[in-house]
Structures are given as C-alpha cells and as structure tokens.
Amino acid sequence: MRGFIKKWIVWTMVLVFVAGLSMPMPVYAADAEWRMMHGEQDALVIGTIAEITEEGYRVEVAQPMWCQQDTAKGRMIPLEEVPSEMIIPEIRYAYSYHMRKAPEAGDCIFISVDKKNGDIWEQNWLAMEVSSTEPDSMQFAQPEHMTSSKYAWQIFVLSGGETTSFAFDGNDILYVDGEVVFDRMEYLKELEAQEERETEVSESIVITTGEGAEVQREGEKPETEDKNLINEESSAIAVIGGADGPTAIFVAAKIGKGTIVAGVVLVAFIICAVIVGVKKFSKKK
Question: Model-level pTM?
Fold first, then answer.
C-alpha cells in the first residue's frame, strides 16, 4: 500500500508539472516599472526640461500624477505639495519619443523622482521622453517604434494611473485580463493600411484652379475624419499594463482554453487515483 501511495504521489506531481506548463501564468519579479506604477517614489511628474545648468536639469512641472495602486503605503507626496519647478542633477532616459540618447532642453518628460534638499530632486526609477505634456495625447513612442511596454505606459497615463494589471509576451503583445490589447504585428499592419489610405486621399483631394482655389473631388475623405491611430486605440482601452524594457515585470501569455482542459485532466486523474487506491486498500483488508 505504501508503495502505491508513493507512486501515486510521484505521478500526481508529474501531472501537475505538465499541466502547469500548459497554463500560461504571470511570473512576478521586482521591477523598476512596476514599483514606479505602484507609488514607490515621492512624486511622478510630467514636465518640460526648461534648461540645462551646472546644477542639472531645470524641469518645469506641467502636472504631477498619482498612482492609484499604492503598495508603498503613502510614500508619495500629496499632489498639491509637488512644486511647479525642480532641479534634477541627472536624467537618464529609459525610452525616448525622438530616440534621443541624452535629454535636451525643450524635451517633454515623464519621470519618477525623490525629494532631496530644497529645489533639488533626484531621478528615482525611470525617466522617459514623451511627445507632449498633455496626458490625453501623450505618446511614448512614434507609431512605427511602438512596443507593448510603451503602449502600456501610454495607457497607464491616459487612465490617470488607475489601473496597473498587465501581462506581456515580449515586446510584441500586451495582455489585460487574458485578452490581447496590443499586438505589434497587427498594429503595424493597420498603421501601414492607414498610411496607404491617407496617401490615396491626399493624392485625390486637392485640385488647384488657375486662381489657386481648392475644390473637393467626389468621394474624397474629409480631413476631419482622419484620426490618430494611437489615440483611437488608447481611448478604447480601459485597463493597463506596462513593463519590459530595462527590466521585465511579467512574462505571461493569455489564459484560455488550455487552462480549463489541463484543470479537468488533473481533477480526473486525482479522482481515478483515489478510486483505485480505495479499491486496492479494500481488497487487502
């Protein structure tokens, strides 16, 4: 009987391991981006580098942001206490909208900072150059350079820091609650198709008369109907993520039918094993 129990335990462990391989589950790890999204800094700031001095970078704060998912137990400074201007001795970009290696005067930035002395602050986690200081139009990458991580940051800001659950499949796919919200390949295809449509429209829209007047051809697409792909997709997504980059937060895949099948197999195996064990035990008695 003991030998049977040992075999049953071993085979159960093997089956659980195999079933686990078929269950895409998030793997958690300490990560700068995760910490940044969960309030582990004194302030999260959107601003502009006004000038570069001997002291460092003088940043004009457009607005501070609040992390709704707070794991740091109130570490963040109240928004009203964040100054309108700060000096940051050193800024190192994790991402750059214009693909810059070093910050420049006039750059719009999104940065995690800790307060030091007086007006002096220090970069804590990440600093990123962005397209603007307006959260509803802010982009972390030009469309052709968009990745799952940058897309997640963009949505994080758009939501006001409210949601932070996400899962990633490399730089190409972003999941939220098991559903794909960003697929880089599909995204680039749509981007290319949109550019083709815009090119066709621009070639057929304007006819210049002798007096320089512009007329509209039949069937042309009005300019006001052209929407920015990023803004359309961003405003349609209510939940966020954000990782991959210098370090990774999650390595995950969509939880789907495979999980259910594996669960059913595991339960069935355990039930069968128990029945067989009970019968053998009864016979020996």
Answer: 0.62
